[in-house]
Amino acid sequence: MKRIKTAVFPVAGLGTRFLPATKTVPKEMLPVVDRPLIQYAVDEAIDAGCDTLVFVTNRYKHSVADYFDKAYELEEKLERAGKHAQLEVVKNVLPNGVRAVFVTQTEALGLGHAVLCAKPVVGDRPFAVMLPDDLIWNGKKAGALRQMIELAGERGGSVVAVEDVPQEKTASYGIVEAPEFDGRAGRVRSIVEKPSPAEAPSTLAVVGRYVLQPRIFELLEQTGAGSGGEIQLTDAIATLLGEDQVHAYRFHGTRFDCGSHLGLIEATIRFALDHEQLSAGAARAMRLALDELGVVEHG
Ligand code: UTP
How far is the CA of 189 from the centre of ligand 1 (A)? Predict the structure, then answer.
């Protein structure tokens, strides 16, 4: 299989769950401790060997492009002030040899449509799709995307990251039916977007990492509006199943659903407690808050 060097980041959604913050700050720019959410996904893509990052944005998301642009004035000021550590942090937002490309999704017609907007840049090669609001943390070990690209290299076809979710949550996800697993991977037999708990074929949910063959673009072009009136990536993958292998992959790592308030809080707690300089202070602050507020966990 051709090497996967391109990762697509669809970030043109409206982020309504984080209003009013997302009135002016894109969801992907909300910080988890010391970095915006999107930086975690970008680092994971680079760790996986990607050197072309395609951001699908809209007119409200200029700050995403600004963030990845070179900040000449800031770099010069940090240099003059002798703030070398901060200078490195700013420069490493996008390391040398990695390029960022921006394409616009003029209307939020759905995740599938956003992916299709990246077609002219991706061309005829397999590629990755990463949803930055699913933050996947695997410590210092291989990130989820690297694991998936390795699997695609071994088995061919496409790969979707999956995780078990509680039965009552199936209507928030694409759900796969993959009856037989060999280790962490199982061939997908069917996939459906946001089924009700009663209709869901399983509780195995697709989370925001995909390795896809370029054929998906043609299928997306033929895909009409699905669940929620949006063009769904899940529906195009469902068609792809009839022609090629799609593997569900249970990645190593912890996923934080940073598209929800609680997920963002959980990620913040985890990264703060794992942070060299902040860990002790964060633990103290948490204990104090629990004591002062008399918080007791129920259930
Ligand atoms: P979500 O379902 O999380 O929607 O999109 P959202 O708009 O970002 O957030 P809420 O639900 O209103 O709070 C999943 C991913 O697909 C992208 C989003 O940016 C997010 O990364 N997306 C969705 C697009 O790029 N374009 C779309 O038309 C829809």
Answer: 26
